[in-house]
Amino acid sequence: MAKRIAEPAVPVQDTEPDGPRLTKGERTRARLVAAAEEVFGEGTYDEASIVEITRRAGVSQGTFYLYFPSKLDIFREVVRDLGHQLRMRLSVAVQGAETRAEIERRGFIEFFTFIEEHPEMYRIIRQAEFVDRDSYRAHYERLAAGYVEGLSKGMAAGQVRVMDPEAVAYCLMGLAEIIGMRWILWDGGGGRMPKTVVESILDFIYHGLLPADRS
């Protein structure tokens, strides 16, 4: 698995494109979270250690405890951060899309791209079910909330058949997750989502979502 933690000789980027400049403390915290994502994603929660997290982040164990009281606290932050990153990526990807069909296309493509970049997300989220169920549930509820809002708008605009928006949101989330697991994670991981698979998924979704009199 490719490492994303910069070597000590490489300056840490302290700005995001068009974003605020990060303080030293914020940079350190971000490095710890990124390192923890790698460590938790490579093994189990029990196997992960604060020693390894701090080693990869390039900070002391004392520094770790300035930001997180325990291993559980940084695990919760990793789950929260992954969900936040995913939701932000999806939000940006669908900006400007005028139809629900186009939103679904962009959203699914962006989701698969995110999973290609963060394959460890699957292992981490599944561990959360047993390590911290509140974080596990919150991850899906936050993701579903935005989906429900968008589907409800599509239904009101006549672009989506009127159904229970929450039920549809979880159906689509489940579809994306299992397809991503099959084509990106299996067979050793590091896979790329085939275009034919994406088109087949969207064809299935369109015929299930769009009104009967729409092509």
Explain what this protein looks like in three dimensions.
The chain is mostly helical. The protein folds into two domains: about 1-70, Homeodomain-like (Arc Repressor Mutant, subunit A, Orthogonal Bundle); about 80-210, Tetracycline Repressor, domain 2, CATH 1.10.357. The protein is about 70% helix and about 0% strand. It contains nine helices and no strands. The protein has helices spanning about 25-40, 50-55, 60-65, 70-95, 100-115, 120-130, 135-155, 165-185, 195-210. The protein is elongated, with a radius of gyration of 19 Å. The termini are far apart. Residues about 1-20 have low confidence and may be disordered.
Give the count of helical stretches.
9
- N-end to C-end Cα span: 43 Å
Low-confidence stretches: 1-19
Order of helices and strands: HHHHHHHHH
Give Rg in angstroms. Answer: 19 Å
Secondary structure class reads: mainly alpha
**Overall 3D shape:** elongated
What is the name of the CATH architecture of the largest domain?
Orthogonal Bundle
Strand fraction? under 5%
**How many DSSP-defined strands?**
0
CATH class term of the largest domain:
Mainly Alpha
Compute the average pLDDT.
Answer: 88
Largest sheet: none
